[in-house]
């Protein structure tokens, strides 16, 4: 009987996209003959060896992780079906990947995939994903991640919208004037509330300075055209245009949005009332489906300069 090595199993896994245990069994069945093992798997799975790789993984979950309130990670893990996205093994993998990113701080997805798993040393992150694939028999794609690391005066809050089946997640970075303030319940609660606001209202920008000039020009042009088409007097057009721009800011700029818990205040006012030296530095919002299908807006990130 030929010796079946881990590298042989991995090579067959990459060739066929079939689970590790089935690849190992195929090699044993064919006495280590690689090409025969490929044929064996194609026969056993009736062509699914190639088909699995071609299916789109457009469902999934967002997971977040925090380490000591100083390092935060948010990740998106995709599956082909919502049924698998609800699977506990799949959700546990997503949580594991978020924790790994926060702990190991890999700079790119390629680097993270080659790192040793923090929960299973000696096994790469890529192999951990393949292990779950072998259980679920469905494409699993580690699509993206974002890492935020803050200083001693900073605080990071995280939120996943469970009612949406973990398909929306947010990271928020706040800055304070002292380490004690950063760790206070008030700041931690503020961060969580802001994260929930971002999840619900989908701001595209942190502040007005981040809005591209072209975006504002387009809004002004649309408003002016509509006013003229409606026969508004020329003297009123400028006010209508400014009103549309103000509305754009209120809907798309986080600091200009009405605070959900007290709509008469803006987010900027609530942060100012939180104390001297408190500011919002950055937020990241992930939602399953960004950049695919009907929503082609891509990843949403915002950061103060």
Question: What key attributes describe this structure?
Answer:
305 residues; 3-stranded antiparallel β-sheet; single chain; alpha+beta; 4 domains; disordered C terminus; 13 helices; Helicase, Ruva Protein, domain 3; Tetrahydropterin Synthase, Chain A; 4-stranded antiparallel β-sheet
Would you write up a description of this structure?
The chain is an alpha+beta fold and 305 residues long. The protein has 4 domains: 6-54, Ubiquitin-associated (UBA) domain (Helicase, Ruva Protein, domain 3, Orthogonal Bundle), CATH 1.10.8; 56-149, Tetrahydropterin Synthase, Chain A, CATH 3.30.479.20; 152-211 and 253-305, 2-Layer Sandwich (Tetrahydropterin Synthase, Chain A), CATH 3.30.479.20; 212-249, GTP Cyclohydrolase I, Chain A, domain 1 (Orthogonal Bundle). It contains 13 helices and 9 strands. It has helices spanning 6-16, 20-29, 34-45, 48-54, 82-85, 88-104, 109-114, 125-136, 179-183, 185-201, 213-229, 234-252, 267-273; strands at 59-67, 71-79, 140-149, 154-160, 168-175, 258-259, 262-266, 279-287, 300-303. The strands form 3 sheets. It has a 4-stranded antiparallel sheet with strand order 4-5-8-9. β6 and β7 (262-266) form a beta hairpin. α1 (6-16) crosses α2 and α1 (6-16) packs across α3. It is elongated and about 90 Å long. It starts with 5 loop residues before the first helix and ends with a strand. Residues 291-305 have low confidence and may be disordered.
